[in-house]
Amino acid sequence: MIEQGKISYKQLISMIVMTISPTAILYLPTITYKEAKQDGWISILIVTIYAFLVAYIIINLNKMFEGKTIIQYSGKIVGKYFGKVIGFLYCVLYIHLNATVIREFSEVLAGPFMPETPLLFFTIGIMLPSMYGVYKGIEVIARTAQIIFPIFLGAVIIIILLGISDMDFSRLQPILAEGYEPVLKGASRQISWFSQTIILTIITPFTNLPKKIGKMTYIAVILVSIMIILVNISIVATFGGEVELMNYPFLSFARYISAIGSLERLDSIIMFLWIGGVFIKIVILHYCGVIAISQLFSVKDYRIFSIPVGIILIILSNILWGSLTELKESIKMINVPYNTMVQAGIPTVLIIIEKIKRRFVHNEK
Amino acid sequence: MNKYIKKLIDKSVDKSKNNSNNNKNNDNNDNNNNDNDNNNNSNNSSNTDKKISTDLKNNLNYIKKQFGNSHDIIFREINVGSKICIPAVVISINGLVNQNLIDYDLLKRVMHIDIKLKDDFMEYIKKSIITMVDINDINSMDEVFDGILSGESVMLIDGYSSGFRLDTREWKDRGVSQPIIGSVVRGPREGFSETLLTNTALLRRRIKTPQLIFDKVNCGQYTKTDIVIAYIKGIANDKIVKEVKKRISKIDIDGILDSGYIEQLIEDEPFSLFPTIGNTEKPDQAAGKLLEGRIAILVDGSPIALTIPFLFIENIQTSEDYYTRPWYATFTRIIRVLSLIIVIFLPGFYISAQTYNQEMLPTHLFITMAASKEGVPFPAFIEILIMSILFEVLKEAGVRMPKHIGEALSIVGALVLGEAAVGAGFVSNPAVMITALTGIATFVIYSLNDSITILRFGFMILGAAGGLFGMLIGTIFLLLHLVSIRSFGAPYMSPMGPRNNKDMKDTLIRVPLWMMNSRSEVISKNTKKSSTNRFVNKSK
């Protein structure tokens, strides 16, 4: 079945925000703290500028080819053979990224909450609804994202508000004590998350208002960065130097709040809402991967790929990394450069080539 | 969607073909060759070629043969005109007709008046002699049988190939009484009855515009049930009306006994747990839905009307919400949503909290629960399962048993079983309490009764197998499924699924009536209501 669904621009915003933020909230504070120490929030601001650039490039690239995904139009830019190579790279990107996310998700659930349970249980558990969601199509995914997005946002804001009394903003000082270098280093670690607007390359043809995509994406990026900055500030303000030692600072933050006052079990509730958010991310990436594969092999009905790709994802998330430490090292060493190259590098190259081509043709006329 | 309906239609086509084969065998014993020919086409008198012959005896023989020897069919042979005495016959079914009407307005007039023989005899009788209100010409045997069987009287006159059909319908009916399922504290208490004419009249009383259209169709090969599709032209979506008519015309089934048959045969998602066609037993509720742009289907013989399209949010709306003031209406809506959540999630949550996720309960509560579970031999899952099944058995028995035994047995069920079970150490007190609360909360939303019972058991199993994570996965599945359903084109979860802020005025909260000035876009194209802006009046 050719995908006939159409998503509105509000649904697009929720989808983009839900793609970037859940894992970013969980992992980014530690990563930035290691480099930029207490100036993590400045590095996030810098990365936002980068995110705008990437979004701009991707949106303009999509505008040049209305209604087609990157797999379909990359062949037109660089020729059929290289087009297939680029398409293949994107398939691998989505699947690899998704496997990383699934592994992160299973580790988070297993580690603090249910250490005795094998990881495969969580992996299969989250992939089953994802396969069902991909089978149903983009409209179902968009509507679910629209329902879960306010709950997720509300949960994050409530947690931050509840913890305000424990925050000591003097821990954020001194600002820029060591100069710009550590801040830029910290920014360089985060760029792979913020260039995840790459999903736009697949989803753009399915929106019903192609003119507004630019504005909506920028709004989404601003929303995401505000959320992550707030989380970062509140965590650093509460914990100070201990952030370096934590695996999941946001979780510890929720637990810290629940230990004070009579609100017990807050971390479990937050965890469930967070699971909803990660599910949306997983299902969107799964969907992008399935569409990419089906267009690479020119298969009209993308739905038959939903279960096989799901099984591949389960297996990959199991065998690619042995433990949490390996996962973290791999994210730092492999994911960040590789993702950035494919998510930001390739569209940049493509748009430059296309612009040159068009000017050439224009000049010839 | 169409695939399922095709299967159902094919199944019922095969069934009816088998039936016609059986009847062919029975009718082969007939000596009359004419009738055999006719019966080979179908097994009842749906012969569109058969005309009324001018010979009265022929007609009579044919009709008597078709009806066999049923004793409730009255053949009254009369002489038309006191002087000219043309033989005629009036056929009616005893029990379906008002015999007074036939006596005074038909027989007396036709038999006692000196009718002159005229050229246009039938017209003359119809217009000047018979003093009944509803009279129609009929020209084929089909209409003769239709008329007789629906309670009208048929008059055939010797020498003429057309006859009359007179509406003399009257039968014993339950009357307009209070409905069982939709009782309200504030609001009208009339409910639909089993007669189609009564129901359409009840709707007409409430909506007095000529734009209220009643389209009648016929369904069911043996029952030939009358079905009325009601909608307000100009507000209802014409595409949906067309789709409904198309689907009903494709139904090929032996008999329609209740509106539930129609619901199951035309619905969009036959395999989903959730209904995509609404039920209502109250005419004011049906009228309200018609005014929103929905379509109502009334089926003869069933007091329950169907409303199309049906969204999930309508499950928590009742007609009483609109007759009371907004604060309490909003409050009761929140209570309903809360009871929905309790029914689906509470037993599973209890099971998973007891078995896997003990950290979810506050410490004090957990100690109390652990203490009351001392000495109970079963794990939490078996406890809740036993009590839930017991509750379902009690519920079903309560519906079926005769009234006078019912009261005594309910005391037995509630007190004795519950108390004795705890006393014997079978189950713990929290389990009994949770099951009782869940069971009562099931009845808060009647339209979802069956769905949430099944869901409740599903989530119990998920909670026992996968803990809270399992229940979460089940919730995600449920959400994905609900969001993907459409009811005749309208997304099931709107206005929350595809978010539509204009329609959020009537979901969890119910804004005051003077703020509700638009119809929902997914239901009707005509979204502008005549608004009632009370502040305009005040300033005057």
Automatic annotation (TrEMBL), chain A:
Similarity comment: Belongs to the amino acid-polyamine-organocation (APC) superfamily. Spore germination protein (SGP) (TC 2.A.3.9) family.
Keyword Hydrolase: no
Residues spanning the signal sequence: none
Transmembrane segments: 12-29, 41-61, 81-97, 117-135, 147-164, 191-209, 216-239, 269-293, 305-324, 336-353
UniProt record, GO biological process: spore germination
Organism: Vallitalea guaymasensis
Keyword Transmembrane on entry: yes
Protein name: Endospore germination permease
GO cellular component term, pick one: membrane
Topology within the bilayer: Multi-pass membrane protein
Cell compartments where the protein resides: Membrane
Pfam annotation, one family: Spore_permease
Alphabetical keyword list: Germination, Membrane, Transmembrane, Transmembrane helix, Transport
